[in-house]
Amino acid sequence: MAASSLTEVVETVFEGRHGVTTVIAGSSALVAQLAAGAEADVLMTANAATMERAVSEGSVRGEPVLMAVNTLVLATAAGNPGGVTGLADLARGDLLIGLCAVEVPCGALAQRALSEAHVAPSADTLEPSVRALVAKISLGELDAGLVYATDARTAGLATIDVPELHDHRNGYYIASVSAEPPLEVQAVIEDFAALGGTGARALYVYGFGQP
Amino acid sequence: MNSPTGVQAGPGTAPRPAGQLPAALTWVGFVALGLLVLPIVGLLQRAPWSALPSILGESEVLEALRVSLVVSLAATAACMVLGLPLAFVLARRRMRFPRIVRALVMLPMVLPPVVAGTALLFALGRRGLVGQWLDSWFGVSLPFTTAGSVVAAAFVALPFFVVTVEAALHQAGDDLDEAAATLGAGAWATLVHVTLPTIRPALAAGTALAWARALGEFGATLTFAGNFPGRTRTLPLETYLALERNPEAAVAISLVLMAVALAVLVTLRDRWIPR
Description:
Chain A is an alpha/beta fold. Chain A has helices spanning 7-14, 27-35, 48-56, 105-116, 130-138, 149-155, 183-193, 198-205; strands at residues 2-3, 24-25, 42-45, 65-76, 97-100, 125-127, 144-148, 158-160, 169-176. The longest helix of chain A is centred in the middle third of the chain and has 12 residues, at 105-116. In chain B, helix 3 crosses helix 12 (235-245). Mean pLDDT of chain B is 87; it is low at 1-12.
């Protein structure tokens, strides 16, 4: 089970491998599915809070490992029609601005980054998933928004590097569902958590940072 | 619906006493009812009854309720104004490719709502086929506005109204209309005094269906109009976000949605549909 922002990574790593079934959904949804009795060997979440919830609910008994980090970037519509240059432009009322809703990890991260930079955003939409936000920016319906570096890269969005965003990172965690996982499950976890593994390399290729 | 008073027993057979149905039919009917009601019971038994007043009193929920009512009622009004003429055109005008036109009208019913929303963006978005001209000529941009939510809801709800009303127009036939015309009634007088009263139950049913579909609309609204409190965040969107932060609140908000829908649908039936 993997968070939706890991879609491409998981597809790359497990492509053509028999006997591996992947379930992709939002981290909160995955944790809820596990709590409701869904069967899985490995859980990968897009932030610490959701993994902590899975551990405290007893659905994950293995030790969670931080495998990657993700940062936000300022993405603009193609050609940057709004003339966006920095975080302060997100407060401009004449632009169409999108953020993730604070209920989802990318929105919580954006809220922290913006309040620390003393920017009061003039958002026109608060999207419940980062993919939906990316789609609206890439269609040119929004002038700018804060999205994950990885999603921006996958979608080929124009981005502006904003130093203020570098310190705000989301941790990606991987854990075995059972306390004593079989060898092949341990191998999968190591593959993602240890430098040089196929999983770790795929994470890097898709723009995730090393922890 | 109407009781099937028009059904005639065949010659030589004794008419069935009213209410007698083959047993198997009755049983399967109740199974179907169970399928519809069981998930609702599931929701009810998980409802946080004691916390209900405080959750529903939250300003975000009340705001979403207001947006939901405004959007769904405006979309329903749009469905009636646009859908009635379309139903008449489909039922009464000779067309070259009637099946294709009917299939096109029903298409929004089967499109996944997210696809419907994306299609609306391609057509009416700021960079869309028609939307770019709306934007540059009139300065009108629908995405991320309440009007945009109304358009999205009307798009998915309109087929329900049109299909219901068109079926009734077909069934009613145009004998009465012709009789009225022979007696000298003008086209508008015939429409208002003869045709519309004949199909009144279907008008009510179509309106209720369209409104219900608009009220529950999620995917197309979110994709086309986005999600902003007080502007485009309807109850279904509020429920979805609440699911992330507090599943109990999500259940509570769904209860409001169902209560509002039930209240309106029951009232509508009692007032408009003859028994």
